[in-house]
Structure prediction request, 269 residues.
Amino acid sequence: MGSETKLAAATIILVRERAGAVETLLMRRHRKSSFMSDTFVFPGGKVDADDASLEAAAIRELFEEAGVLLVRGPALDATARDAWRARLNSGEVSFAAMLRELHLEPDFARLHAWSRWVTPSVEPKRFDARFYLAEMPADQTTSYDQKETVEEAWVTPEAGIARHSDSTSGFRLPPPQLRTLHEMHEALRTTPGLAALVAAADARAGHVAPVMPRFADLGGGQMALLLPWDPDYSARGTGEGVDWQAENPLGVGPSRFLLEGMSWRLAHA
Prediction:
């Protein structure tokens, strides 16, 4: 990858099982957000200076945006979690200081590496984001922060894709989220259940590589975002790119996004 500045970021794909179906949490970003405004995304954000690691940043962002705390140590009831979250989001206390005071530690064992996405070089604001799968704790509930996030939805991967495809739904997914739901749907179609999805994440972990889409003009007014395993990625894509090993098992299935109106549609080459 090139030398342009990219902000390190971390995202959590929070999942739960309800009535035999696996659902994931998506949160609508505020329409005034500087990045991915008014779209549904997984909870996450940039790594802060006092974050000890990408994993720590992912856990902090999940707590700030969704109110879910993945830690080990003395139990906190819902009232205490809400109070500490409010202090954290107001800037009164740092996440690291909160953990020290409460004798808590981030529970990194709950995180399962899923993917890594890098914003295309044409964008003015760029991130190098790690995506982690994590199971929703049974004793907690989610709530959007009413600042960066203004709505939440628990959806199955199949339902999320269908809502995005409906242009009248107002449910728009950025390319990384759309591709992730596709990957989750394929994994669950092969072997249903939350345990199987976690196992699929663990099987992916050793193959995670940077995915940096490249823009391409396909002619006839058709714009596309090409993924690194697309056959046209090198020849027709513009902007910074990444090398992709042909044998990487994660580079399968649809390899490009086609722009239709204001939404991207995942498609085969």
Observations:
- The chain has one domain: 7-211.
- The mean pLDDT is 94.
- The CA atoms of residues 207 and 247 lie 10 Å apart.
- The radius of gyration is 18 Å.
